[in-house]
């Protein structure tokens, strides 16, 4: 089970606020929404083989497989907060985000299309 720091209800409110006005979401609310989604990903796809980074707000490890312990992880996904929230809500599709360069995914285990979106409408 993933360790939660964001109350799920607070995370859901932050995500709803972002959905309502993505460009106008205050930075603390945006950070809460991103971190909530990262925690949910770790809960739904437990493991340590992929590192998902959404700078500057958070990072998590997920997906079952070989555990990474030192140095640069072999499987890394990195994206910006708006793209991440688009992916987890279903507003942005994984293949399109990768093809457009909005997601950088390196490694053999980094295709998250099977676990996204986390919070579709």
UniProtKB/TrEMBL annotation:
Residues 27-118 form the Bacterial SCP orthologue domain. Gene3D superfamilies: 3.30.1050.40. It comes from the Bacteria. It holds the Pfam family SCP_3. This is Bacterial SCP orthologue domain-containing protein. The lineage of its organism: Bacteria, Bacillati, Actinomycetota, Actinomycetes, Micrococcales.
């Amino acid at each position: 089970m993933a360790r939660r720091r964001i109350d799920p209800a607070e995370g859901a409110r932050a995500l709803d606020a972002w959905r309502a006005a993505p460009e106008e979401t205050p930075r603390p609310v945006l950070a809460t929404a991103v971190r909530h989604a990262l925690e949910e990903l770790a809960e739904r796809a437990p493991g340590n083989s992929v590192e998902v980074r959404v700078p500057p707000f958070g990072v998590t490890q997920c997906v079952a497989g070989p555990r990474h312990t030192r140095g640069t992880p072999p499987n890394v996904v990195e994206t910006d907060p708006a793209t991440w929230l688009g992916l987890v809500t279903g507003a942005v599709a994984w293949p399109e985000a990768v093809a457009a360069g909005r997601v950088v995914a390196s490694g053999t285990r980094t295709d998250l299309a099977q676990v996204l979106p986390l919070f579709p409408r």
